[in-house]
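User: I'm putting together a teaching handout on how sequence relates to shape, and I'd like one worked example. Could you take Serine palmitoyltransferase small subunit B from Culex quinquefasciatus, show the sequence you're using, and then write out its predicted structure as tokens right after it?

Assistant: Happy to. First the sequence, then the structure tokens directly below it.
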Amino acid sequence: MLESETLIQKVLRKWDEFYLQWEIYTLTYLFEPWEKWIINGVILGILALLGFSSYVYLPGYTRKLINAFLPATGSEHHLHLEQLQSTGQMDFGVN
């Protein structure tokens, strides 16, 4: 009889599989551990800056994208944002 895995073991196994695929796709398995940290840090930094800048400089489009992935609250929230934009009450702080 096989022992059942706990939830933590399943999550750790999935994380290990994901990280192995990440190393293969980015070819970081060829580097030393300290080089992996630097490369992964740079990639994470670029993704963080991309997400932040898209939220700050493209707020309407970013909110529509978020609403597309959250359909449960998307329609009501989307209509409320359009009403605020049409009345001029929405200020993003970008000139």
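A couple of points you could highlight for students: The first helix runs from residue 7 to 26. Residues 35-81 form one domain.
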